[in-house]
Amino acid sequence: MLSDSSGSxxxxxxxxxxxxxxxxxxxxxxxxxxxxxxxGARLEMWRPLIAELYDxxxxxxxxxxxxxxxxxxxxxxxxxxAVWLTHLMDVAGVERADVLGYSWGGVLAQQLxxxxxxRVRGLVLAATNxxxxxxxxxxxxxxxxxxxxxxxxxxxxxxxxxxxxxxxxTDRDVLRSVMSSLNPLxxxxxxxxxxxxxxxxxxxxxxxxxxxxPTLIVTGDTDAFIPVTVGRRLAHVIPHAELVLLPGADHMxxxxxxxxxxxxxxxxxGRVAGRELLPSEQVGRPG
Length: 287
Known about the structure:
- 34% of the residues lie in helices and 16% in strands.
- It is an alpha/beta fold.
């Protein structure tokens, strides 16, 4: 069960399989923020950010193969996962959402914005890339696990390991995460490799220029896995996208710099909501 600040979990059925979801916040008007996890992560990864979002409604979930959602269907590529995600939104009663994807989740967020544009009001891509052609692609092999001490780039290897194993990124107990990853009842290994499979041959560069949702790209300038050049290219190719570089932030910016990220997201989504109201404000006005 998640803490009160992050809501509580429930189980819904999507395409015949049980899926663990978490809702939080209720007083804020407008659509919820749909939170798409990083690779191998459980929905608990959003705890630090949700706590800073000032009761804005959110919907987090576990992807297929992550404990709480048995991988009953064959592995899916990104377009299939985007369809699956619209089914999850249908079951959860979410017609339209502001979508925030982190790392691997930002890849799926891009696919959703392309394939189901009517379901995405605003798009936030945090520490993510565009697939093939990017300087890096997220994978466990890239994590600097042999370095016991954090380097100058501030990407703490133990914190990255906990996150890669599906643990709470704010939990410094690596042994607990390792044991959880080895436990057949809690392991995220199946989900992790399914998500790697979904990345196979994927690139958004050929169609990123067609994305019409207002888009914010957030990245840290010390991220060892997503270079600043990736964020800049995303912002260049997506029409009218905004880019925010957080000085000194690394790949774990959602947990290490959650308050700053939340402020940036709140400001952006507030402006998205304001622009959406403009046409209706013109109705009935004298010409």
